[in-house]
Amino acid sequence: MLRPAIDFRLDAFGFHLRAQVADELFDVMLAVDTALVEQFGNALVFRRVQIAEAVIFQLPLQLADT
Q1: The dihedral of CA 57, 58, 61, 64: what is its sign?
Q2: H helices of 1-66, where?
Q3: Distance between CA atoms of 38 and 52, rounded to whole angstroms?
Q4: What is d(CA 47, CA 50) in angstroms, rounded to the nearest whole number?
Q5: Main-chain phi, psi angles of 64, to 5 degrees
Q6: What is the C-alpha separation between 39 and 33, in angstroms, rounded?
Q7: For a tag site, which of 27, 32, 44, 57 has the least CB within 10 Å?
Q8: Which DSSP symbol is given to 57?
Q9: Residue 59 within any structural domain of the chain
Q10: In this structure, is residue 35 part of a structural domain?
């Protein structure tokens, strides 16, 4: 007896759905990672500016006795 071929439409749909979910998860992870890297870079720049300002604007705290 001949049977019809197996219907793979549901399997293809399930794979497509899983691929979409994985793609959306990757997009979210990429956005979060980018934000964290940017914040880390901003913190490094802020720290280096603070150090440079401390060196440039060093003022004597004790006045000379006259």
Answers
A1: negative
A2: 9-56
A3: 21
A4: 5
A5: -75, 140
A6: 10
A7: 57
A8: T
A9: no
A10: yes
Residue 16 lies in a domain: no
- Single pTM value for the model: 0.53
**Total domain count for the chain?**
1
User: Tokens 């691929």 correspond to what residue?
Assistant: 19
Band (pLDDT 50/70/90 cuts) for residue 52 is confident
Distance of alpha carbon 7 from alpha carbon 13, whole angstroms: 11
Question: Which structural domain, as residue segments, surrounds residue 34?
Answer: 24-54
Is residue 11 in a domain? Answer: no
Which region holds residue 65: left if phi is over 0, alpha if psi is between -120 and 50, else beta?
beta
Residue holding tokens 């979910």? 21
Question: Could you give the CA distance from residue 25 to residue 32 in angstroms, rounded to a whole number?
Answer: 11
